[in-house]
Amino acid sequence: MRRKILLVEDNRDDAELTVSTMKAHGVDADIEVVEDGIDALEYFSRSGRHANRSPGLPDLAIIDLNLPRMNGIELLQKLRADPQTRRLPIVILTSSIQQQDVARSYDSGANSYVRKPVDYDEFVRVARRLGEYWLFTNHPAPPSAT
Amino acid sequence: MSTTHAASPAVPGVEALDHATMCAAMLRAVAQTWRDQLRSTRLDRAATEYAQQLVAALDDAAARLDEPRGLPATAQDQATQPPGDDRYKLLVESVKDYAIFMLDPQGQVLTWNAGAQRLKGYNANEIIGRHFSAFYPPDDLATGKPARELLIASQTGRYEEEGWRIRKDGTRFWANVVITALRDALGVLVGFGKVTRDLTERKHAEEELRLSEERFRLMVGSVTDYAILFLDAQGRIASWNAGAQRIKGWRPEEAIGQHFRMFYTEEAVASGHPERELEVAARDGRYEEEGWRVRKDGSRFWANVVITTMRAPHGALLGFVKVTRDITERREAQLALEHAAADLEKRVNDRTQELEDVNRKLEATNHELESFGYSVSHDLRAPLRALDGFSKLVLMSAADKLDDTERDHLARVRAAAQRMSQLIDDMLSLSQLSRATMKPTEVDLTAIAREIVADLRRSSPERHVDVTIQEGMSAHGDHRLLRIALENLLGNAWKFTRKRPDATVEVGAVERDGRRVWHVRDNGAGFDPTYASKLFIPFQRLHSTSDFEGTGVGLATVQRIVRRHGGDIWFDSAPDRGATFFFTLATP
């Protein structure tokens, strides 16, 4: 069965680059892109524009921090508070290396925090490792926080 | 003295005298003198009782002498004289404090007692029969005073005065003199009783007192810095000094007799303030206040006023002493001072307010800077990533359609994007450096330098650099920041000696002018000190990127760290002759 990744990313360029690096470099997965926290919550509750999607959870959620309407941290907290998504692997993928962003992400229950590199080649390496690790090497793990 | 003198034939006309009548009059005169004395003099209780007994005895004796005598005078002899007469003689003769003697109607001395002898110095036999004008000073004699006194006594029954009299030895004494006319039962003048007291001591005391009062009056009167005045018990002005005139403006004749409320403002008078001051002074003995008072010309002055109560020894209120000072200048100085203090306080408050405003603005600015930094770190990278990423995608997908120039251009787009990303990172860390919290400890700079050099050697194993690090260097400061500073200085030294086959780098410290000065020295490319002003400015570079890579924030970072430690940084360099960077850190 094909793996599913939910990518929460409002920047279309970033979203496309992320998808293309993953697909072009060995991450065999369906990648669904939603634009912000609200869109993501509707995806999980199969409401709004996601009302007709097929049921089931993604195998991995990749979330940017700086999002319109509902930011990544708030979304992360809501997902960890919901029993359905409590154990979902979640990776924060963002441009920020601010200490407070890293700390808040882990405090809110992220499984990993990865900085988006500017260098495409570096980005490819990061995306591939990330996909490999969370989709194929690591079985769904208990979240580091509840 | 003896009564035989009284009956002496040497005194003409006295034979006809009813001796007892004369004695009775005499006794009454003495009693009256003592009564007067009792009224005007405060004696202790025992003395008063004694004096009262004496007066009673005198009155009693006089009454007995006046009693109608059952026996004809001719039938009386010396042996059968009434007992009152003897008592009188004993009494009068023994009195030593008073000269008591009798004069005949013309003023000749008839009798003499022990007091008279003591006071005036004459024995009885020296003076009896002489005219009493012998006791008077020459100027009184010249005006006929003795005769005038007798005339007044004979007309009114009594003459009293105080005046100078002369003793036998010619010395003067101040005498209280009472002359009483003595008449027989038919009213015929038979002579005078004369009672004299020596008041010289009292006179002296009075003179002393008068002089003292005069001196006091002169002193008070001449004081000009204070208005000193006496008020009677009702508050009317009884005296006025020069100071009162100077301070308040009224002349003595305008002020004396007026009520002292004229010194007060209309409001104070209307509220009964002057009277209240006297009430308080009368109750407490003293009243003091500072307040407005009014001068004659209507102007006001700020006064310090002390009112002190004067009481008689037995407690009766005599009046008040009022001392007033014009302290307008002092008050104005004080007000000016208070005003200045208030002004200063206000300015301090204003300044504090300004500083708080500035602080708030700074906080807001800092907050904005942080948001800006966040936005830079997050949002500026996304476009760069797109530039780099899509360039790479084009390079991959259209590799066979592009010529070398086109591929080179796309490679340059990617290099520019990556370099800008590096600039953003450096800028962010530089701004975070200024805000980072300092945790000062004792830092082993020797150990840090060794670690950094080890890292540098690992990152470029092909380099051969001769590194000397002084032993035992330690400093008080923030470990993390000092490490960043040394990383930059050693990284620069490492970088700029790259083209030297004999590269040397030295880290050390020396004492200079009581300060510890650290240095990092290399023999690398160096730089022209002409451009040194640009050295510590972020993103300013003295070498081309192609010669030496870097973003130009390294030395700016070092300078900020040194400054945050309260130290200085400077350098010594010339092109191709290496560079030495010196720095100090504040002693904790």
Describe the protein's architecture and organization.
The complex is a heterodimer of chains A (146) and B (588). Chain A is of the alpha/beta class and 146 residues long. Helix content of chain A is 40%, strand content 17%. In chain A, helix 4 links the parallel strand 4 and strand 5. In chain A, helix 1 crosses helix 5 (120-137) and helix 2 (37-45) runs parallel beside helix 3 (72-81). In chain A, 42% of the residues are buried. Chain B starts with a helix and ends in a 5-residue tail after the last strand. Residues 1-17 and 68-84 of chain B have low confidence and may be disordered. Chain B has helices at 3-6, 19-40, 45-66, 83-94, 114-120, 124-127, 138-142, 145-156, 200-222, 242-248, 252-255, 266-270, 273-284, 328-397, 404-435, 445-459, 479-496, 554-564; strands spanning 98-103, 158-166, 172-183, 189-198, 227-232, 286-294, 300-311, 317-326, 440-444, 466-469, 474-478, 504-512, 515-522, 569-573, 579-583. Chain B is built from 18 helices and 15 strands. Chain B is 48% helix and 20% strand. A five-stranded mixed sheet of chain B has the order 10-12-13-15-14. In chain B, strands 1-4-3-2 form a four-stranded antiparallel sheet, sandwiched between helices. At the A-B interface, helix 1 and helix 5 of A face helix 14 and helix 15 of B.
